[in-house]
Amino acid sequence: MTSEPRVIDCQEAARRLHELIDGELTPEVEGAVQRHLEDCAPCMAVYEFEEAFLRFVKLKAKGQTAPGDLKKRILGSLGLTSNSDNT
Amino acid sequence: MASAPDDKKETFEKEALPYLDTVYRVALRLSGDSTQADDLTQETMFKAYRAWHQYKQGTNVRAWLLTILRHTFINEYRREKQRGPTVDVAEFEQFTVFHDIQEVDPAGRFFDQIVDDEVIRAIDQLPPEFRECLVLSDIADLSYAEIADIMKVPVGTVKSRLFRARQALQRVLYDYAVEAGYIKRSVR
Ligand SMILES: [Zn+2]
């Protein structure tokens, strides 16, 4: 026999938003949070805002790349020649 | 069987080297200093190459490289540099900025006007243990479990530090955006 699907309130949904965005929830909890968001416009609005914020942070914080001369120095000291560096 | 030197070169180039920029970014945010970040990055890649036979194929090479980086930083660099003031993370703990901006900019478009340098400055203001969680998650894209493993703290600690670090960052950037005139402060 299967148990009733889990139901969560706005408070728990708010706490779980970042975990949802990070893909860190178990399938059961993820389903519960997603069902809550579908039924609750205020929480969905917060979710969309947080999602946009985290996308923004990740993008801006990854702007820098290692200086070219540092790369050359590292490759040289390891006896390597490659210059692949795209993350 | 030990792999031939050429094989080592080839797999290291193919699997570890693509993360040089990630190592450098994390080194910059941990040390807050570009000279130290250069040295840290170089030392990390050197140690990683020397220990390449210890890397378990199929595991996350980013997490492995950053474990070496953090270890090197803590043992050889951390005490050298005095950093600027940090924000009080506890103060921001509970609140998303959303409730402040929902009337004027619910999609948070004002963020797009904030330049990279300002975001970096705000990250650097976080207390070290919070900044580290955020950097390992949002710059290095590690999972909570990988971060917990690197920082030697429980996953629950990572979760709460990361959440608080992000909320503090959000608040600092919102305050900055208000001051810069990108968004009007609404009265709560
Ligand atoms: Zn709700």
Describe the 3D structure.
Chain A is mainly alpha-helical. Chain A has one domain (10-77). Chain A has four helices and no strands. Chain A has helices spanning 10-21, 27-39, 41-61, 68-78. In chain A, helix 1 (10-21) packs across helix 2 (27-39), helix 1 packs parallel to helix 3 (41-61) and helix 2 (27-39) crosses helix 3 (41-61). Chain B is an all-alpha fold. Chain B has two domains: 1-104, RNA polymerase sigma factor, region 2, helix turn helix motif (Rna Polymerase Sigma Factor, Chain: A), CATH 1.10.1740; 115-188, Winged helix-like DNA-binding domain superfamily/Winged helix DNA-binding domain (Arc Repressor Mutant, subunit A, Orthogonal Bundle). Helix content of chain B is 63%, strand content 0%. Chain B has ten helices and no strands. Chain B has helices at 5-15, 20-31, 34-50, 61-77, 89-92, 98-101, 116-124, 128-139, 144-151, 155-179. In chain B, helix 2 (20-31) crosses helix 3, helix 3 (34-50) packs across helix 4 and helix 4 (61-77) packs parallel to helix 9. The longest helix of chain B is centred in the last third of the chain and has 25 residues, at 155-179. The model of chain B has no long low-confidence stretch (mean pLDDT 89). Classes of the chains: A mainly alpha (87), B mainly alpha (188). Residues 10, 13, 36, 40, 42-43 of chain A line the site of zinc ion.
Summed up, what is this model?
Chain A is built from four helices and no strands. By secondary structure, chain A is mostly helical. Chain A has one domain.
What are its keywords?
heterodimer, A: 87 residues, mainly alpha, disordered C terminus, B: 188 residues, Rna Polymerase Sigma Factor, Chain: A, Arc Repressor Mutant, subunit A, 10 helices
